[in-house]
Each structure stands twice: as C-alpha cells, then as structure tokens.
What we know:
The protein is an alpha+beta fold. The protein has 13 helices and 18 strands. It has two domains: 3-94, CATH 2.40.50.140; 119-164 and 200-443, Bira Bifunctional Protein, Domain 2 (BirA Bifunctional Protein, domain 2, 2-Layer Sandwich).
Amino acid sequence: MRIQQILLQEQAVQNLTVRGWVRTVRRSKEVVFIELNDGSCLASLQLVATESVDAQALAAVTTGACIEARGDLVASPAAGQRWELRVTQLEVLGEADSSYPMQKKRHSFEYLRSMAHLRPRANTFGAVFRLRSALSFAVHQFFHQRGFLYVHTPIITASDCEGAGELFRVTTLDPLHPPLKEGGVDWGQDFFGTRTGLTVSGQLQGELFATAFRDIYTFGPTFRAENSHTSRHASEFWMIEPEMAFADLAADCRLAEDFLRFLVRYALEHCGEDLQFFNERIEPGLLDKLTALADARFETMSYSEAVTRLKSSGQAFEFPVEWGLDLQSEHERYLCEQVIGGPLFVTDYPKQIKAFYMRANEDGRTVAAMDLLVPRVGEIIGGSQREERLDVLSARMDELGMERESLQWYLDIRRWGSCPHAGFGLGFERLLMYLSGMENIRDVIPFPRTPGQALF
C-alpha cells in the first residue's frame, strides 16, 4: 500500500507492508526510528523498530536505502503525525553507502541540478513532479471534456514555425565534409532528402488538423536552439497548443481564460498538500495568488492602449516603451499588477514583431494577436487568429522573404476549404513555475536541457 493511502486510513491496520526509501534514521539503545517515503505524497511514514527486528537488517538501514517493512499501523503518540508503523519484519532491498549525497540538510537548487537523477527524492522536487504529473492529466481532461481531438504532431520537421532559424538540425551528413551543390550543402542527399530540424511548435500541423476536425490540441516536447542562459529558457520544453476552426481572436481569448482558470482550480483542489509546501517554503502568498487568479475577472486592452498607459505612467522602466517595440516582462507586470490589478489580455500587436501566420487587421499595421499577462510573471499564454486568406498570407510571406517550398502544404489549406481559425500556445514549464513559485525553469522539468548541459 502506498504511504499516501496509509496516512488517510481511518483505523489501525495489522500486518501491513510498506516499501520506500529512507529519508532519515534515528537510533537509540532500544528503538530505531525510520522516516520512510515512497513519493506518493509529501509526508513520510514513521517506522518504529525495536530489538525484536533482525539486527543485521536494521544495521543496514541508512539514509537513501530502499526497504520493505511489515508491521502494525497504530496511532502515534508523537505530535504532528497520526499513524506510525510498529515493525515486525524488515528487509533492505537496496543499500545506500555513506557517499549518498541526499542527506538531511538543505541543498541549493543549483547543487541538486547536478544530480538530477537523485533530486526527485528531495521534498521540493517530489512536490514539483507530483504537480507536473497532476497538471498533465488536467490538460488532457480539459480538452477531452470539450471534445477536442488530441494530435501527435511531428518532432522532426522541415518547417520553421516562428521563422527565427533557431532549430536543432537533424542530419546524417558528415558535418566536416557534406556533399555540396551550387556552393552550398546538398540537403537532397540527407536522410530525409531535405533540410530538417527539431520542431519549435506543432502549431502549423495543428492548423491542418483543425480544418478537418474543428477543435484539436497538441501537447508534446518542442525545441529551440537559442543560446539563452536565463532562468526562463530551456532548449527542450513542452508546449500545449490548441487550435479551433471557425474561431476569431475573441473566442481564442475565451478559451485561454477558461483553460488557465481550470488548471489553477484543478491544482488547488487536487494538489493541496504540495501547494501548501510551496506556499510555506518557496513563495509565501502563493495560495492567495492562485485563489485570486481562479476567481479573477480577465480584462482586455489593445497593444496601442497599453503603450499609451505605460508612457504616461511616470514609471522609470529599464527598457524603452515605444509603439512598434515588443513589451518586456517589466512592462507586462506593470500593466497587470499596477494598472489592472489582475490578469490581462493585450491584443492587436504591430505586425512587424509578430509571426507571419497571424491575421492582418484592417488597419494594415497590426495583427489579431493576443498575450495573456498574469501578476508576478507577465506573459503566460500567447496566441492569435491565423491568417486564413491565401492572398494575404502569400503576400506576407513574400514581404518577409520566406521560402514557400517547405510550406506549400500550409498554403494548400488556404486554397481548399479555408476557414477562420485561431489558437494559442502555453509553455507547460512556465505554467508550472507560476503554480509552484519555482523561479528557474530547470527546476520544473525532470532532466533540463540548456546550452552546455545535456546530462542524464
């Protein structure tokens, strides 16, 4: 039986078997106290072993060891715990010698990143990865309840969705002596017969499926070869990307609001113990922040109005505020924390700072894009209505000097049965950082991949 189930027992249980990993051991002349955890919850179960238990087995019980114990679950006389297990039999399944690094003391997150294969046993990371698991399930539950189709989009792709060129290249060609053609690499001789890379987004393929199934979503790993060392960027990360046919920007915003509110409420309802831990140890006030967001009114403001508000605020920002420049985190936080006092959709951005696929507005200067900003973080969701008009999309691609060859299929869905459609992207790790209060993206993904770092 898992420790989470055991701690919820309403009455004592005889001859109970538990298995897990030793967090701490305290020894006296007559009694050994063992704190056992199996990852099912934050709390550990105290085992009480006396001299009646095999002395050789007890001697092998050290911090980090894996054990199996059998005994009677009885009410505990100790404060702060309801039950304890009076051990009658004990077996050490896997010993841990004195070099085991996860001792009972506070380790820095940076130190724990150097041993990502062991850090899940730490309280903080146990809570992080239970939250990650629960929220993964919640993502699928939300879209399943709304009739969305789950689509597995390709990891290897010949198209660069964002057009930034920050792709990890996938090739079998000799990097030192690749075949050449007309002065450049002959990608036609590569494994896939063309230049390919790891995907930065499943959106383009998602749009295709939306024109056949109406409402779809993707949820999977994406990659960006951006040489960024900030606490908010990773080279491998997970994205949630829904796409809706017959939808405009307003419908896109409604879905984003419903989705974020659902996930926050799900975490509050199903991850209470771990959120309480984060509230006490990581970000004081976290529970109040999440409760407020779950019930908040989501406001909307155009980019142009946002720039006007920022310029007239009298605030000394580190980065300049001018129409045509992208908003920085400090601007986004000021808008939702000081101007609105809650979550905010900023819409209709200048077309020159947004991707080619976003629908052009009638003013010729802006596109039907939106960013959802939340207090303490800034942008957490970004989306848009997609450009469904073939002539407008083609002209925009020509304006940006984009090659059409690898995106002919994307243009085809504008030729045959095109329809208005919209979608957004939510970085799963960014969401987890917001819900847990963790400040570094490397600490909410099991094995972080960042520039110069691909261990484990």
